[in-house]
Amino acid sequence: MPALHIEDLSEKEKLKLEVEQLRKEVKLQRQQVSKCSEEIKNYIEERSGDDPLVKGIPEDKNPFKEKGSCVIS
Question: Which partner for 9 in 13, 19, 39, 55 could form a disulfide, CB atoms 3.0-4.6 Å apart?
Fold first, then answer.
């Protein structure tokens, strides 16, 4: 399917696309931000023990650990 360039469309075609998008969006189930944010926070806290960015990577398993030092003479 070729790429759609909005500037190539007539005003009527643009409005049809907008209405189509709005029809899709109105069907989406919405939730309160306060409820979703609490669920996200709980999800993150439950898994933070396994997260290498929080816990760190053990030195013996770190693929980016420097193999040796650089000496310039």
Answer: 13
